[in-house]
Amino acid sequence: KRVAEFVGKRDAAKNPKTFVYRIHDKPDPDKLSNFNAFIKRFGYGIQLTTAKTISTSLNSLLNNVKGKKEQNLIETLAIRAMAKAAYSTRNIGHYGLAFPHYTHFTSPIRRYPDLIVHRLLDHYLKNLPSVNQTEYENYCKHCSQMEQKATEAERASIKYKQAEYLADKIGEVFEATVSGIAKWGVFAELKESKCEGMIPMKNFSDDFYYIDEDNYTLIGLHNGNNIRFGDTIKVKVVEVDLMKKMMTFSLV
């Protein structure tokens, strides 16, 4: 943080220096409003008046739900309401951390953007002129894209190992948490192993079901059976496709 402030403020009025920042934009107002409406059923709420009150009340909310049964649900939905962090030479601050200037300044072996930060800091401490912003913005875009690819690769590897773990457990029943609801099915995460699979929508044949997106709920039109994000359910492992990294469950 202090490194980013040093470069961001140094001669900012006369001669701003090009630098690599870790930026985090403000959350989408509609997503925040829906999130706020949803958590009110648990007795919580966040202040939506200003960016500062949102940030403060959101941090307070996450502290208040620690250790409670709705913690995982509210934390997951809070993350989904937030924008994604990225690298850029155009500093807009880091909303999540409430810092006007922020960059990564850890060991350069961890991330290439960290190495760029070290090099730029050395460059400016020698009183050399500012580097080309367009060139470094392209570096930032590339780093953000590689970060996303790394995240996707990590998720794929986890899904593969989850499928491998459940491959010999066809027919077994587990307690699970509803971790997602989509038009093609209900996602469930096994409580013990954290393996996530899907109950296909075609398996819900006892009624006509529709999705209430604002309340993260699958609603049965005639029989009143509802499945909500965060509900505890029991599922049976029906099928595991190791190559596709897919696990299919049925509702018990």
Compute the CA-based radius of gyration: 23 Å
Distance linking N and C termini = 50 Å
Order of helices and strands: HEHHHEHHEEEEEEEE
Helix content: 25-40%
Number of helices: 6
Query: Beta-strand percentage?
Result: 15-25%
Numbering strands along the chain, what is their spatial order in the largest sheet?
5-4-3-9-10
Structural class: alpha+beta
Low-confidence stretches: none
Average pLDDT, rounded to a whole number, is 88
Largest sheet properties: 5 strands, antiparallel
Q: Compute the number of strand runs.
A: 10
Shape estimate: globular
Provide an overview of this structure.
The N and C termini lie far apart (50 Å). It is globular, with a radius of gyration of 23 Å. The chain contains six helices and ten strands. It has a five-stranded antiparallel beta sheet. A three-stranded antiparallel beta sheet has the order 6-7-8, with no helix packed on it. Strands 1-2 form a two-stranded antiparallel ribbon. The chain is an alpha+beta fold and 252 residues long. α2 (29-39) runs antiparallel to α4 (71-81). A hairpin with a 5-residue loop joins β7 (217-220) and β8.
What can be said about this structure in brief?
This protein is an alpha+beta fold and 252 residues long.
Task: Supply the key terms.
single chain, 3-stranded antiparallel β-sheet, 37% helix, 10 strands, alpha+beta, 5-stranded antiparallel β-sheet
